[in-house]
Amino acid sequence: MSVIAGQAEVTTRGEPHVLLPGESLTIAPGEPHSIRNGGVDTLVVRTTLRPPGEFEAAIRALYEAGAGGKPDVFAVAAVLSHHRSDVRLAGVPWLVQRPLLRLLAGIATMLGRNPLT
Predict the structure, then answer these.
(1) Cβ of 75: how many Cβ atoms within 10 Å?
(2) What is the rounded distance in angstroms from the CA atom of residue 110 to the CA atom of residue 94?
(3) C or N: which end of the chain has fewer Cβ atoms within 10 Å?
(4) Chain-centre distance of CA 59, in angstroms?
(5) Where are the beta strands (DSSP E) in 6-108?
């Protein structure tokens, strides 16, 4: 990822990094990480994903699940379950995460709150 504008606070491998415009950081595939806006200006980052998978579709669906303010937990779970190859929750073991997301995604579908159906 490369910072285009703003200040990014990136945590990877439990290590915090502050990136300013023009700086970049390579994050290994599957490496849990978080990116936060570390300043008051708009943060713009550029990422290159290899292979690309469906990360962009996953992120768009996650934003849609949170449209209007508070994210719908069932909708978010449905998106994460569907896009499990591209996006996972950092800090939650996959052995726990996968069945929990599958269960919540099923509930989302039953409630009519699955944004992907």
Answers:
(1) 23
(2) 24
(3) C
(4) 6
(5) 8-12, 15-19, 33-37, 44-46
